[in-house]
Amino acid sequence: MPPELPAGLFAIAHRAGNEPARLAEAVAAGALAIEADLWLHRGHIEVRHTKTAGPLPILWDRWELRPGWRPRLRLPELLEAAPPGVLLHLDLKGWDDRLGPAVREAMAALAPGRPYLVSAQRWSLLEPFHAVEEALVVHSIGSARRFERIARHLEGRRAAAVAIHRELLTQERAGRLQAVSEAVLTWPVNDPALLGPLAALGVRGVISDSLAVVRAVASAGAAG
Length: 224
Prior knowledge:
The chain is an alpha/beta fold and about 220 residues long. The protein is built from seven helices and twelve strands. The protein has a single domain (about 10-224), classed as TIM Barrel (Alpha-Beta Barrel), CATH 3.20.20.190. It has helices spanning about 20-30, 75-80, 100-110, 145-155, 170-180, 195-200, 210-224, and strands spanning about 10-15, 35-40, 45, 50-55, 55-60, 65, 85-90, 115-120, 135-140, 160-165, 185, 205-210. Strand 10, helix 5 (about 170-180) and strand 11 (about 185) form a beta-alpha-beta unit. It comes from Tepidiforma bonchosmolovskayae. This is Glycerophosphodiester phosphodiesterase.
């Protein structure tokens, strides 16, 4: 069945799917959607935000180094850990064009009928999902240059959703995105004080590293 976004403003727990403990904490905090980062590495779909370092046995991300020889979370394990009622947000990473088809086929085999969001800043990775009924495709925008390209890329089609970096989001840009998409998401949103102004811009979903934000959104939803 096609994915349905939660009613009203909702929170996506950013990167919470990358580690089972963080996923459980986010679900306990009331997150209705969990984001996980997917890479294709040596034929396996790995769940992590860190990058590989060529032949070196390390994983890295900005100021973080991790040993690369330890077992890595894979997509089947993520699906097993995520409760069925939680909407998974799969963010595709890297430059390997085989990742999109691999994720599409794996989701069809491992979780047939389960709705999910799929996003990428490299939009070509999203092409395999446009005909998948269970997938809601999210075009991510991380630069002003990419924002200017979104309408031309869509070629008159209306996107199911777009996600834009919060530093790029203005009232004028929010209006332009609403004209070409059904829902606007933004990241990172780590301060509950931002929720009101973002909702006023018409933002539907906030992508947050903060459990305080997740709880605030969940509380507001329960009260409404």
